[in-house]
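Reminder to self: tokens first, then the designed residues, so the page reads top to bottom the way the pipeline ran.
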């Protein structure tokens, strides 16, 4: 007997999962088609002809056309979620809604991506990633640039703002951490959360290090993420619809296991630093995961720095900078 469709209860609520191919290791991205008035799409898939074909085919399978879309919601700034927004909006005339702080990143996509890369290059260099890896990663990132595209946002949303559709109300709620613009869409009446990459069933979300958007200090992505998880944990939910993979029916169990994972990892990093420190974030990443594929170097670096942020806040580790490279050493 075939497995029951894990998205069946979403479909009963008029929310259809469309799985759109991406060029990234994470695999397909979940786009959600909400059959309501207006006909609504949450996220879009990356900017490619094959992704557009697939999206069009899957929308048609539910009896609709791209031209019928009336509203496109954007969950966050990553290119697998925003790439096709502009094309879809132009074809349909749909309104495009995004959280206020996400608007400049979507409308100024190229400039923002360029500034992100420059900032990431500096962060990687300061944290001990060898120059040839930094250069290789910068060119990988430029190679992916065209999978994203700018789009005009016609409706800027405030944190906590309600979007009223004919049959439901979706509240846009700010849940930063995986990215600095993560927005989840909450249907309180149906106890459904469209969560994008804020919470995934099969993998822990990467709290990626990101350029401060306000010119201030570097945001503590993992610390912020754990605070966001606690807020989501407190919500009464029956179904969480993620940006990749299967839905989540017990969000508290998933969140608790993520909280435990990060606590364990922070403790492990604290022990490594105490035993063999001072070490750079890159050296710590190698200790934890061995030789890292070039394309994973920024992810693993983000992961380590997220945890050294926790340890620094707790006062068990401090930064020492020698010749432009930051190393971590135990306190006491
Ligand atoms: Zn993402």
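Designed residues (332 positions):
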């Amino acid at each position: 007997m075939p497995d029951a469709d894990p998205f069946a209860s979403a479909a009963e609520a008029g929310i259809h999962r469309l799985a759109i191919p991406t060029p990234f290791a994470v695999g397909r991205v979940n786009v959600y088609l909400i059959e309501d008035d207006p006909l609504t799409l949450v996220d879009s898939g990356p900017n490619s002809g094959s992704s557009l074909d697939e999206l069009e085919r899957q929308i048609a399978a539910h009896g609709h056309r791209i031209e019928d879309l009336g509203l496109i919601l954007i969950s966050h700034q990553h290119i697998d979620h925003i790439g096709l927004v502009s094309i879809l909006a132009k074809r349909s005339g749909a309104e495009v809604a995004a959280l206020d702080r996400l608007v400049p990143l979507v409308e100024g996509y190229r400039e923002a991506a360029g500034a992100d890369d420059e900032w990431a290059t500096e962060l990687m260099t300061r944290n001990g990633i060898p120059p040839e890896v930094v250069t290789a990663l910068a060119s990988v990132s430029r190679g992916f640039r065209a999978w994203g595209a700018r789009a005009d946002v016609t409706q800027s949303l405030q944190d906590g703002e309600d979007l009223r559709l004919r049959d439901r109300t979706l509240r846009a709620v700010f849940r930063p951490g995986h990215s600095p613009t993560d927005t989840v869409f909450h249907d309180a009446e149906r106890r459904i959360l469209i969560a994008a990459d804020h919470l995934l069933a099969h993998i822990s979300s990467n709290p990626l290090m990101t350029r401060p958007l306000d010119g201030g200090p570097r945001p503590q992505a993992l610390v912020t993420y754990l605070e966001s998880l606690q807020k989501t944990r407190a919500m009464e939910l029956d179904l969480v619809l993620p940006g990749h993979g299967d839905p989540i029916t017990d969000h508290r169990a998933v969140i608790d296991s993520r909280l435990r994972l990060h606590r364990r990892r922070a403790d492990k990093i604290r022990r490594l630093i105490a035993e063999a420190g001072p070490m750079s974030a890159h050296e710590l990443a190698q200790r934890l995961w061995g030789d890292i594929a070039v394309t994973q170097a920024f992810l693993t670096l983000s992961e380590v720095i997220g945890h050294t942020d926790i340890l620094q806040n707790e006062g068990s580790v401090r930064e020492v900078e020698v010749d432009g490279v930051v190393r971590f050493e135990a306190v006491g």
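The chain has eleven helices and 13 strands.
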